[in-house]
C-alpha cells in the first residue's frame, strides 16, 4: 500500500469517528458550543500549516464575502446540524446518513450548475439514497411517539449534508476561479466559522466540558485537532496528489467506519436494516457520481 492510499484511508477513518466524538461532547455542552469549540480547535493547526506554506496573503481579504459564505455553508450549518443529529441518533446511524453528502452534491450541482443536469441514472441514485436513509433511520417507527427523536435527528443530518453540498457547489462557482491555495481557503473558512459561532453561541456552561476529561479529549483532540485540523490538511494534500475527483471518493468510507466504531466502541446496537441502508446509500452515491447525461 502506497503513501497516498494510506492517507486516503486515514482520512476516511478520522471523518468516520467524528460522530462518536460528537456524541461524547454533546452529552456535556450544547450543539452550538460543540461546533464553536471544534471550529476553534481545528482552525489553529490549519492556520499554522498555511503560514508555514506561506499560503495566506492580504490581497485575499477582497474575497472575504466568499470566505464568509463558505464558513456558513461548509462549517457552521454542517457542524451544528451534525452535532444536533448525533444528539438524537446513535452515532453510527448519524454517520451512515451523512453518506448522502455526495448524492446531495450531485443534486445541487444539477440545480445550480447548467452543465451538470440531472440524468436518469443520477435520479435513480437519489431515490436509492433516500431509501437508504429511511432504512438507517428505521422509518417504519417514525410515526410512533417514542421515535420523534429519530425523525428530528434524521432531518438535522440531512440539513447538515445539504450545507456541505451547497458549499461544494458554491466553491465550484465562486471560489475555484479565484485560484486560491486550498489550504488557505480551509484556514479562512474555519477561522471565519469560529468567529461567527463565537458571536451566536451562548457561553454559559461551556466550561463544564473541562471537568469531563473524556468529553474534553473528544472535542479538542478528536473533533478539533484530528477531525477538523489534520483532516482538512490531509484532504487538500490528497487533492494535490490525486486530484479532486479521486479525493472525493473518500466520502464512501466514513459511513461504514461510523457504523463499525459506534457498534464496537460506543456499544451501540447495529441492525441489519442499518447495514443494508448504508449499502443502499453508497450505491446511490456511486450511481449519482458516475451517471452520464441521459
Automatic annotation (TrEMBL):
The EamA domain, residue ranges: 6-136, 153-287
Compartments reported by the entry: Membrane
Topology term for the membrane: Multi-pass membrane protein
Coiled coil (residue ranges): none
Pfam families: EamA (PF00892)
Keywords recorded for this protein, A-Z: Membrane, Transmembrane, Transmembrane helix
Entry protein name: Membrane protein
Organism: Melittangium boletus DSM 14713
